[in-house]
Amino acid sequence: MTESWVNYAERIGVDLHLELSGPGGRRAALTRALREAVRGGRLAPGTRLPPYRSLAADLGVARNTVADAYAELVAEGWLTARQGSGTRVAERARPLRRAVDVPAQAPARTGGPRHDLRQGRPDASAFPRAAWAASYRRALQAAPSEAFGPGDPAGRRELRETLAEYLARARGVRTEPDRIVICSGFAHALRLLFGRDAPGSTGGAGGAGGPAGPAGGGVLPGPLGVEAYGLGFHRDLLAAAGVRTVPLPLDEHGARVAALGRERAVLLTPAHQFPTGGPLRPERRAAVIDWARARGAVVLEDDYDGEFRYDRRPVGALQGLDPERVIHIGSVSKSLSPALRLGWMVLPERYVEPVLAAKGEREGWASVPDQLALADFVACGSYDRHVRRMRQRYRGRRDRLVAALAERAPHIEVTGIAAGLHAVLRLPPGTERTVVEAAARRGVALDGLAAFRHPDGPASAGDGLVVGYAAPADHAYGAALEALCEVLAAA
Q1: CA-to-CA dists, residue 213 to 190, 195, 392, angstroms
Q2: In what side-by-side order are the strands of the sheet with 413-415?
Q3: CB 243 within 8 A of CB 224
Q4: Which of 60, 324, 335, 453 is at a distance of 20 to 30 A from 179, taking alpha carbons?
């Protein structure tokens, strides 16, 4: 029977205070922490380290994380490993000074918050490295030679075919590969559609080719209807492209699309309104399609977290109601990692050629090997398995948040939690700014609802916090909740 690292540390007379913080993920953090423990004398030469399983269980990391950290330190000479005698601190790894003179090591300073509860950030430590590496290897081995030449601006055919099948199955999207254009994410899609990367625009990132369109050289005309609460950097991007945005009022059923008038396009988050939560109710989904048909307009559907639902049946994509009036935009930034820079647009037929013209003759944003790897990752079932696993993990995180608040801050109402990666915590009127500042003083990074309000829109959502429960690693989540509850108990 293996003993815990806590019991092991007590028996050898040390408390290592292993802090898994700093850049590079948990393996790199564990390697740094052990190296400092040896260098500082808290682990003396000859000390036997605990088995992988014991240390992994106590720190809340994978066994492979511990094994890789041990192997790296063995290779560097800090540790030795022999069959039958375990892993020990190397005899030559002498401390720079006596252990009694060495204070406990403080957590490495990274410049970021102590507890990251910002919205829109998946758990970076949960990236499926082994499965992704396997798909990457298979994709490279199977790729034709021409895949390593100039990229097709539409994206690799392999990925577009795979996405067409997946989106139909998982999100109810009606499309075919030739109507899908690969991009580097939602912001890139907006730049292509509204002129930031199109010819004739200013500040573009390498766009070339194609005729100038109606919105600053873009494909779509303005003005653009947007939800009264949404991401500010999207509004800034549109403003930089010369597009005027018109805020739509919100209520508990999503955007009040009856307020749409002479706009030529509207941007919605129908699966789960960001940030207030909740799907767009069925009659409003039908109404916005009728408006688009009557006006000759188009609906932009931001499907930013449609795969993460917990307490309700899946809400299919709005695009399925009318593929010729809806542009469906998605990415892997929440489901896999924002570092991959892979997204897609599912376009009405009339917009395919203008978008490709705006993109230019070659793929300049999305890595072709990454596209091929994602195609394999989805086709072999690894993507589905990862999403199911993360759905369970994030639901557990959400439930822990709700339970902690019910116990420690029962006066705080929690909303918008049926899906997604964040919750909205309702605050008494006039307290939002004070609570956000108090959280920052305790090292808790989060946002107030006011940060997402359109400057011309009504403050209909009231005071509240937008709390992301996905970003912290498992071993750090409890401390983040504790700090949050301490702030809210005094609110």
Answers
A1: 14, 8, 44
A2: 413-415, 422-426, 464-468, 447-448
A3: yes
A4: 335
Which is it for the CA torsion 483, 485, 489, 490, positive or negative? positive
**Cβ-count burial of 391 within 10 angstroms (0-12 exposed, 13-18 middle, 19+ buried)?**
middle
Give me the phi and psi of 467, to 5 degrees please. Answer: -115, 115
Rounded alpha-carbon distances, angstroms, from residue 465 to 119, 305, 420, 438, 445: 10, 19, 15, 12, 11
CB atoms within 10 A of CB 455: 8
- C-alpha closest to that of 40 among 66, 14, 68, 6: 14
CB-neighbour burial class of residue 81 (10 A; exposed 0-12, middle 13-18, buried 19+):
middle
The model's pTM is 0.74
* Cα first-last separation, the chain: 47
**Residues in CB range of 9: below 8 A, 6 or more apart:** 15, 16
Strands (E), 235-283: 245-248, 250-251, 254-255, 265-268
What DSSP letter does each residue of 421-471 carry, written as one string?
SEEEEE--TT-HHHHHHHHHHTTEE-EEGGGGB-TTS--TT-SEEEEE-SS
Q: Kindly give, in sequence order, each residue whose CB lies less than 8 Å from that of residue 378, ignoring residues fewer than 6 positions away.
A: 162, 163, 166, 384
- State the Cα–Cα distance between residues 385 and 335, nearest whole angstrom: 11
Helix (H) or strand (E) holding 183, with range, is strand 180-183
Rg (CA), the chain: 25
Q: At what angle do helices 186-194 and 232-240 cross, to 10 degrees?
A: 30
Asked if omega into 223 is within 30° of 0 (cis), the reply is: yes
Dihedral sign, Cα of residue 293, residue 167, residue 170, residue 219: negative
pLDDT tens, per residue, the chain with 491 residues: 344 444 444 444 444 556 666 666 778 888 888 888 887 777 888 888 888 888 887 777 888 888 888 888 887 778 888 777 788 888 764 444 433 333 334 344 445 788 999 998 899 999 999 999 999 999 999 999 999 998 899 999 999 999 999 999 999 999 999 999 999 999 999 999 998 444 333 333 333 333 333 434 579 988 999 999 999 889 999 998 899 999 999 998 999 999 998 899 999 999 989 999 888 999 999 999 999 999 999 999 999 877 888 876 777 899 999 999 999 999 999 999 999 999 999 999 999 999 999 998 888 888 999 999 999 999 999 999 999 999 999 999 999 999 999 999 999 999 989 888 999 999 999 999 999 999 999 999 999 999 999 999 888 888 999 999 998 988 889 999 999 999 998 87
Tokens (6 digits) for 170: 């998982």
